[in-house]
Amino acid sequence: MNKSVLGVAEAETAYFDELLGYHLRRLSVLVMSDFADSLAPLKLKPTDASVLMMIESNPGITQSEVGKALGILRANMAPLIGTLVRRGLIERERVDGRSQAMRLSGSGQSLCRQVKSITREHEKRLFGKLSDAAKTRLIAQIRGLWSSTSASAP
Amino acid sequence: MNKSVLGVAEAETAYFDELLGYHLRRLSVLVMSDFADSLAPLKLKPTDASVLMMIESNPGITQSEVGKALGILRANMAPLIGTLVRRGLIERERVDGRSQAMRLSGSGQSLCRQVKSITREHEKRLFGKLSDAAKTRLIAQIRGLWSSTSASAP
DNA sequence: TATTGTTATACTCTATAACTATA
DNA sequence: TATAGTTATAGAGTATAACAATA
Fold it and tell me: Does A4 touch chain B (CB under 8 A)?
C-alpha cells in the first residue's frame, strides 16, 4: 500500500533510463512493496520475517548476532524481538548473564512455514517469467557486483 | 554513511540465498548508499538530483508533473522544491494562477552537469565490471520484470 | 575494558488531511 | 467539481548516546 517509486513518467525520463542503478532501485522498491503486501495477512513485516527465518536456520542465535547478520542495530532489535516474543513466536533462554539464545516456538515454526510458502508464491509471481537458469545467472551476477564493491568498512 | 543492508552474515543465511528479491534489495541498498555518498559533496540527495535532472530534460514542467513522474507526493514536493529555489538552482514562473513552470537557472545547469559526471563515475565504479552489452541486457531484463508486474492502480 | 541488552531520543522519509486559490 | 500548491502532522525506519549487568 506504499508505492513511492522512481518511475511511471509521461515526462521525458531521459538520463535515468541509461542508469542501471535507477532500474535496480525501481524494481527493488516494487518487489519489496509486493513482498510487504504478501506478508501482511500474517501480521509480519519483511524485517520480522527475515528475523524469524534467521532464527529458524540458526537455532540458539543471539539478538546481536541476528542484528549483525541482517544489518539491524542492537538498539532496534530490542523492541522488534520483544514483539515477536510477546506474540509467542520466539522463546528466549539466558545462555550467559548477558546473551540470550533464541529459538522458534511451535507456532513460530508453523508461521515460518507459511512465510516460506508466501515467499515462494511472491517470487513466482514476480519472477516466474524467468527460467530457473536465468534466475540463477541473475543472482550470480548480482552477487558478483555486490562482492566486488562491499569492501566497506566495519 | 548509512549502511543497513540485509546481508553480511556469518550466520547461515539459508533460505534467503535462493531469493532473487533478497539479492536485488541488498544490491539496491548498496548502490543507493554509494550514490548518496557520491552526491553529498554537492549537498544534494538522490531525490534532489532526480528532480533537477527531470527539470533539465523537461523545461517548463510543473511541480505536480515532476511529482507524478518520480513518485513524490505533492505535499512533499513543496519543501523539496522550496529548498532548491532558495539555493538558486531552479526558477519558477506562474503559467496560470495555480501552476508554475520550472526551469534550471544557470547555476542549476552547471550543478546538473556535475551530477551527471558524478553519476557516470558512480555507475562505472559499481558496474564497471559489466560489459556494455551485459549492462544493456540487464537493464532490459529488469525493465521486463517491472513492466510485467506494474499493472498497479493509479 | 568490551559486549549484550535496553531505553530514550532524533532525524529522515513517506503518508494523510485540510486549507487556499484558481480553473 | 477538480486541480496546484501549501501547511501541519503522524507514522515508519534508522541513527546516536547513555546506562546496567556481565564477561
Answer: yes
